[in-house]
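Hey everyone, long-time lurker, first post.

I ran two proteins through the pipeline my lab uses and got sequence/structure pairs for each. Pasting them in order. The first:
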Amino acid sequence: MKASFFILVICAVCFASDFAQAQPGRRGGPVGPRIEPENLDFDLGVGKITDRELFEKLSYQGPEVSRDAYLANLEFVKFIIDKADPNNHKVYFMNTQNHRAHPPYMRLVGIESRERGAITYMPRLTSPDGTPGLYIIDFQPNDSYSFEDIDRILKKLTDHMPLLKGKVAFHPLGGNMRRYESEKDKYENGGVSVYLDSDIYKNISYLPLNIAKGFGKLRVYDNELRSSPRDILICPTLPNEMPRVAGVITEARQTPLSHVNLRAIQDKVPNAFIKDARQLEDISSLIGKEVFYEVTSQGYRIRLAKPAEIERHFAAMRPTVPRYPKRDLSSKKIIPLEKADFPDASRYGAKAANLAAMKKFKLKKGTLPDGFVMPFYFYDEFMKHNGLYKAFDKLAENEQFKTDSKFRAEALAKFQNQIRTAEMPAWMMEQVSALQKEFPADTPIRCRSSTNNEDLDGFSGAGLYDSFTHNPSEGHLAKSVKQVFASLWNFRAYEERAFFLIDHKQTAMGVLFHPNFKGELANGVAVTSDVLYGTEGNYYLNIQPEEDLVTNPTAESSPEETLLAWWERDGQQLIRSSNPDEPANSLLDSDQQNLLREALGRIHFNFEKLYGKNEGDEFAMEIEFKITSDGKLVIKQARPWVF
């Protein structure tokens, strides 16, 4: 589900336009008898908004905003301040679910003298009091209120809607914008906060990375903590590796396309950036307790949870039937990458098969690496040759292994070491030796995991398994191949398979080989849809300088965020620079952006057909890419985005 967060644009038409709804009191109809705010039926509205829940009940969020285009898909409540009695202005909060135009509403409640506008909730932005969530107040574009008027109106609205205190800003439109420009000093000195359209991506203190609900114990993550699938973790920064958990909160802004967040999306667990989360009373008071945690496009919710609802939640999440990944052992030779294809995922793994498929997409020459693929047959024969399947069976029967996660992690680490030090059959050594000779003697070889349990439609498995670079000084390539084999049994991958009831022994490891890239200028991840801000017609990109990986960022990483237009050459919007202290420039130059745009279009179109998607189906591809030391674009991976 996409996060609903659309770019505000200044509306140059009359805010008071109506929907010409067929109802009594529409524009031109008779004025009804006056109804005081305290006497309103709820289907008309209220005179006071006492809490956030009531605001949500009164609000509208959707596309039906007539000419008020800038309000589309934002959560807003319209209001009217009746000035008939100059000594007692009265506030009407409209039930905006039912009434979205001011003039017909005024006739329904029998008022004429007024100030009217809308209160819009911006959940991602930081309020003046420093907490997540900002309410902005705007009026008709042709209005031109003085600073004194705006100050008075905001105070009046806050009196009748206390949750605005410390969380409200004036949003000038049209005539109000011109008046604001002439009175900036008064706003700066008068304590009235102002929100401008250019602020939409600035000062963000809440960002929903994955919209979902979860239950678990709220705990603060540190390097010593061993988390469980029933923990909701508060992380100062997002760690590079994390076994399955029930939810994530980070106090530092995340890299949206990191492996950890991709797994949160796949696992359907809530994940959000909440600035200074441990300083917020509603969160800090619940640390160490069992909670319900929900991430929505309009903010987060967190509360104490009951044991019964926790158990129901986890019972509903987990599959009930074991699953067996497709594993075809009929291919018995290492082959050049271009000789494999999309249907070969069951022989070589989806990562290798998808890269091979892209060789047929007519991308610019040099955009894809050349290399080789090792089939599952090698892994299976290696495991049987060393009795490692039987060794795992014995381990899995151990009661402590079944129930004690710490013991299980330690036992799996020992099992991985068994794999790394086991003997490779002579015939396999010969084929790996022949493969190694295909690369120049001084070339580092990248050995990449490629399984039948990742990069699948509906299951990304991002970050579950490990890849390694084999340097010429390390001797026989078998060393690094066995390291890749062993990564099938790391703790995070084992726990993920166990939760989804995926058969461990049916899971198989292939290996993708290509020259290692050194000294790259940038690396990035792109999705063929805007999966974070929800804009239409854009690719969403995260980019890091040099070798600071987007998929596994360091704690200090600040990735570039760019929206790259689907069709418009040189059409891009830099949302966030990778270095906020330097001028805002993209890490990709114009030629690289245009080349990436063309490649993303071809990749999306071709994979959409290969995965059998129909027009209108929710579908996107996620692509990992590099800019090499000589400035060339290289695409190294493609997987379906898990919605």
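...and the second, right after it:
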Amino acid sequence: MPSTRPQSVESTQHSIFKAELLSQHGLFKQMHKGMTLTASLLVLAFVLFTGINPELAGTLFGAARSWIESTFGWYYLVTVVLLIAVCCYIVLSRHGSIRLGDDHSRPEFSNFAWLSMLFSAGIGIGILFFGVAEPIFYLDNSGVFGYPNNPYADMAGATAIGHDRAVDALRVTYFHWGFHGWAVYVMVGLSLAYFAFRKKLPLALRSTLYPFIGDRIYGPIGHAVDILGVLGCVFGVATSLGLGVSQMAVGLERLIGVDSGLTTQLVLIAVISIISILSALSGVGRGIKIISEWNIIISILVIAFFIFGGPTAWLLSVFGESLADYLANFIQMGLWFPQEQGPADWQKGWTVFYWGWWLAWAPFVGLFIARISRGRTLREFVIGVLLVPTMLIFIWLGIFGGTALYQELHASGGPGTAGIIELVRQWNLPSALFASSDGIAGDGTLGWLLSAMMVFLLLSWFVTSSDSSTLVLTTILSLGNEDPPKRFRIFWGLIIGLVAAALLVAGGLGALQTANIAAALPLSLVILLMTAGVLKSLFQEARSDEPACPKPAQLLQND
């Protein structure tokens, strides 16, 4: 096993970072002034452009997204499959025993806390928002959006709304939320943690490029890469906040009768932003950790409601059937290149969109996962991040999505008449989850309690994503400081809330969403370089008795 890296190299390098790159006085003390100002101005420019003319912004970003999906859809598919292959290699190779840190280091957090935080930050409100709506969309066979709802089911001959199509609906949902997406998070998080904790470089995206450009990571190239990660973080979380509050507002309307319109959604954004900032100020070991653990506890209670209040035996049966179907087919699903126009349009609208979304979120989620993973072995990291959250997601989707599927299959008016499919056809996705819960608990006290817990989960899961993002982007802008200045955590927490509120009022969230997907293209190139860089460094470390140490930068200049 390679020996521990000398402390003197680490101390020398960090002193150079602080002396030459970070501001030592004034408002920007302990932050990179140039990157902070540039990122802030770019966010402001985007909000002004999108807010003043959301129609033009939507047209431009929509055209960019369509061009990317048509031109680079195959590239996204191949990239994600390649990342899965690298994950498998690391687990099976001798590199798997290397620790993310010095050889004597051990994990900072317990397994339960670690898994709770990475699950909550990595998914957030996504599986609540889509957990019912997406399987129901794939069960539908109307083609109301101009392409097949589920080409996989159609190719298998399951064209009618029935049991076989329901199994296929869950399989496709697992596909979009499973190994492919989490492999992206694994490689970004592993690369960041490896170079930060083992090679003693800053915990920032730029550090993963060290094997290729050396000390130039501290110059314009490194600044550009980090700013791209900051923008992806701000826009991704702001988009989720803007979309998520619509579902929270629907839940509150059902609980206490408040209107679910714009005013309620803006109030929710303000409340969530305040809670997120307070959590981020408390740090990873307190607020973020505690809220993440409560997410898991309440999630278990909600899942118990659905399992024992719903069709338990049917859910267990269809879960096993759909999971086996996914495991047998996920590789070929990831390499499917349809030739017909309808299936190709479906793939661009769903699979390519999802892969772009995972890639766009990867710097944010990956850096947070890296931040909480010091001391774990590469093998432990890959297996933990790739398998555990994925299996929890499969269980969640199997129970929530499976319950809605059962309700549609066994509706009193015949298959497809329970009303949930109609909500999805109207793209009223926020109401689909609560419509399904009504079929279990009704509208009495039990139904109110179930809705309350789901609203709490929507709130708390977004808080964990928001406070994590605030900590992540301030860590990037402070060149890896794991305890960045609190005033900038407050600043960026407010920025995320204001961006979401401004675009919600202006109707520009759609443009923000498409812009975020378009940003996945340059980020995917960075992620591939990260992967190549960590593999190169691992091979170098395996060939030497000492880990390959980056030399301290000699000529750093402030910009």
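Reply from user beta_strand_b:
Welcome! Quick read of the second one: The radius of gyration is 23 Å. The chain has one domain: 31-156+163-328+353-542.
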